[in-house]
Write a structure and sequence with these properties.
312 residues, 8-stranded mixed beta sheet, single chain, binds 1,3-dihydroxyacetonephosphate, alpha/beta, binds NADPH dihydro-nicotinamide-adenine-dinucleotide phosphate
């Protein structure tokens, strides 16, 4: 049995895809809807999905997908560690915890030392998955045999999973691309053009790869679905909330603060990491300041352009 914890857009979309293979439990802390989840409008839920707010019922499954936002995951794991430990836990969160400065896999491993820890990430909008459009993702688990078993269990007719044992690389790809997507959105929202966006994507990718290698990831993982793949998607599509948030910043428009925008807190986490480890992460630093309203778009761009000239 599979349970998905977190009945947001992504948890619900994964439930729809996996329901093609068998029963799925979708848990939310507050289920105040019936039939159609307002976070994923226009999607009818198949009968194979049981929607519940009963965590004990959901935790009867051996495989647990954690589809919570990155900044909520740590406290959730702390609250429920005793019941979650020993299970196979697959996180879908794309972010770095601002307080603990780690990604989801380390949050799980610290809270639940006996758990099998995995990450499911890659270019995939919830709405695309839920509509049955083809999607390719990365399943990362340090234990090769568990990675293979999960790849089989979580692949579905239109959900094609590749596997890797580089958990750090896979989860950093997903977390860091959100920061670059905000920067790309800002460029477009401010009317700076497609050429400037290409520059931000490329230099953002260089920043992602540098940081990931520093944190022990394999650089080639970043060229896969979870890095380059998701970066490409998120920096070029209005479907992305991170991109839309950046576009609103760039255009000086307000943005709904209830929307999940993982890149904003992650950019702040990266600024702290950079200070801790003596790293140069100019794009993350710019996004953090822009998102906090500490600098204007003009000043931020000017600052990036005036950095010392260097080799590529
Ligand atoms: N949407 C997408 O296309 C994709 C999203 N992801 C990633 O998946 C993660 C979740 O995103 P997404 O589903 O889109 O976000 P949503 O904003 O759609 O939903 C977030 C969900 O998390 C729940 N939640 C928040 N805090 C808690 C908590 N403390 N305990 C229990 N539930 C909680 C919310 O419940 P409530 O309604 O009660 O607040 C809500 O159901 C993010 O890291 C995102 O980057 C990955 C790939 C694609
Ligand atoms: O991660 C995603 C697609 O792979 C979703 O991106 P947003 O959170 O920016 O909407």
């Amino acid at each position: 049995m599979i349970s998905i914890l977190g009945a947001g857009a992504f948890g619900t979309a994964l439930a729809v895809a996996l329901a093609a293979k068998g029963p799925v439990t979708l848990w939310g802390r507050r289920i105040d809807w019936q039939g159609e989840n307002p976070r994923l409008p226009g999607v009818a839920l198949p009968d194979a999905i049981t929607v519940t707010d009963d965590l004990n019922a959901a935790l009867k499954a051996g495989t647990i997908l954690l589809a919570l936002p990155a900044q909520k995951l740590g406290a959730f794991l702390d609250d429920h560690a005793a019941r979650l430990d020993g299970k196979c836990q697959v996180s879908t969160a794309k972010g770095i915890d601002l307080q603990r400065l780690t990604g989801p896999s380390t949050l799980i491993a610290r809270a639940c030392p006996r758990a099998t820890v995995a990450v499911l990430t890659g270019p995939s909008f919830a709405a695309d998955i839920a509509r049955g459009l083809p999607t390719a993702l990365t399943l990362a688990c340090a234990e090769a045999s568990a990675a293979e078993a999960l790849q089989q269990r979580l692949s579905a007719p239109v959900l094609r999973l590749y596997r890797t044992t580089d958990v750090q690389g896979a989860e950093l790809g997903g977390a860091l691309k959100n920061v670059v997507a905000i920067a790309a959105g800002t460029v477009i929202g401010a009317g700076l053009g497609d050429s400037a966006r290409a520059a931000i994507i490329t230099r953002g990718f260089a920043e992602m790869t540098r940081l990931a290698a520093h944190l022990g990831a394999r650089p080639e993982t970043l060229t896969g679905l979870s890095g380059l793949g998701d970066l490409t998607l998120t920096c070029t599509s209005d479907q992305s909330r991170n991109f839309r948030f950046g576009a609103a910043l760039g255009a000086g428009r307000p943005f709904d603060t209830a929307t999940t925008v993982e890149g904003a807190a992650t950019a702040r986490a990266l600024v702290r990491l950079a200070a801790r480890d003596g790293l140069d992460l100019p794009i993350a630093a710019m996004v953090a300041r822009l998102a906090e309203g500490e600098v204007s778009v003009e000043k931020a761009m000017d600052h990036l352009l005036r950095r010392p000239l260097k080799e590529e």
